[in-house]
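4.2 Preliminary Data

To establish feasibility before requesting continued support, the project team ran the inverse folding procedure on a target of 385 residues. The structure was first converted into the token representation described in Section 3, and no sequence information of any kind was made available to the design step. The complete token record follows.
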């Protein structure tokens, strides 16, 4: 296993981190998906015993059960002392200031530990950023740090770069967790966020390195590029190497569900050349060509320009189309459907479309948005956990 400094802090972590949002599951009687504890314990313990030292979880993962499963698994054999735990509290459960402490105390009980190594304000987004500042959430986290309940403070972020830059400059964070992968170089926070965080002395952890598992397989247009390249690697490894190449990245967090996936990833990240600046110029060109190949597979011709939003009914139109296109681009619907579940829970899914037509007039691609939303919704709806 390769290791890297965690930003400017005085410790290292495994370059491959384990995300605990996609633990093995079992189908419950009510139709939901619960954690298969025996398999999850095996997975987590194997990861620790084979060199993974960074574990990422959150208050809400697996219907608030992920932290408990991780804590139970690490308790055996003194494994807790061998790893760093990063967990997150979302702003949405901070109804009162007292809730913030109560939630952390519950987290510590679930994790069976007296401290969290890295505590993150979960999923900062532009709509909530102003309220987060008004509530002085930073001050609450500082109290926890002074008491030794948490060691370091960070945040996770979904959204565009301008607000990310505001967040970074507002408070002396010690780390951030951002979505990046070979498809999102110019999306989400873009690769610029990696450089910006580094300039502010922050550790950078990467989430969604495989785009929910989509990048583990390559459509023919991309598979042909990989096949014709002199060095033969699986799509998964090309995706990981794209991120490992950034010296500013401390750890790449991957959600692994099976022991086979874990062993494959451990083997990849244990290669001697799986280090910063590992890509040659030709390999960078290959990855850029692969990106173009993925993006050429589009079912609904949405470019994500966002001219159609805000929708009068708050439907997340570009997101619905992006998830639908990803499902076709990657050849499977599981992760896009899971992501759409959260859109539905926020009452922003396509079922709220009234076919008012406002979006049609705004769309430069002349997409019949109400009709295509029906198609996307029918394909994406139904995931429960």
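Position-by-position output of the design step:
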């Amino acid at each position: 296993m390769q290791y890297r400094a965690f930003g400017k802090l005085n410790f290292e972590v495994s370059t491959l981190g384990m995300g605990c949002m996609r633990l093995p599951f079992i189908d419950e009687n009510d139709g939901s998906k619960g954690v298969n504890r025996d398999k999850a314990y095996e997975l987590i313990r194997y990861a620790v015993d084979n060199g993974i030292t960074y574990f990422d979880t959150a208050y809400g993962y697996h219907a608030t059960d992920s932290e408990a499963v991780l804590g139970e698994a690490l308790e055996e054999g003194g494994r807790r002392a061998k790893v760093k735990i990063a967990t997150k509290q979302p702003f949405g459960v901070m109804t009162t200031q007292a809730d913030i402490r109560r939630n952390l105390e519950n987290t510590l009980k679930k994790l069976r530990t007296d401290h969290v190594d890295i505590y993150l304000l979960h999923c900062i987004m532009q709509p909530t950023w102003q309220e987060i500042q008004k509530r002085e959430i930073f001050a609450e986290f500082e109290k926890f740090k002074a008491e030794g309940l948490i060691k370091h403070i960070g945040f996770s972020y979904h959204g565009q770069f301008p607000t990310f830059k505001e967040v970074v400059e507002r408070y002396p964070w010690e780390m951030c967790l951002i979505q990046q992968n070979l498809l999102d170089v110019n999306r989400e926070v873009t690769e610029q966020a990696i450089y910006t965080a580094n300039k502010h002395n922050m550790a950078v952890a990467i989430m969604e390195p495989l785009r929910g598992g989509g990048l583990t397989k390559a459509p023919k247009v991309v598979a042909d590029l990989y096949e014709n390249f002199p060095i033969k690697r699986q799509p998964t490894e090309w995706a990981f190497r794209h991120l490992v190449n950034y010296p500013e990245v401390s750890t790449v967090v991957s959600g692994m569900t099976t022991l086979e996936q874990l062993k494959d990833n451990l083997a990849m990240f244990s290669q001697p050349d799986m280090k910063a600046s590992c890509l040659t110029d030709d390999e960078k060109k290959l990855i850029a060509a692969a990106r173009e190949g993925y993006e050429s597979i589009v079912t609904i011709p949405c470019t994500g320009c966002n001219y159609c939003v805000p929708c009068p009914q708050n439907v997340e139109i570009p997101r619905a189309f992006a998830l639908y296109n990803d499902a076709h681009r990657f050849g499977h619907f599981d992760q896009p459907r899971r992501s759409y579940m959260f859109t539905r829970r926020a009452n922003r899914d396509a079922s709220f479309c009234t076919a008012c037509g406002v979006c049609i007039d705004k769309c430069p691609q002349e997409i019949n948005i109400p009709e295509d939303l029906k198609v996307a919704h029918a394909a994406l709806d139904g995931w429960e956990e």
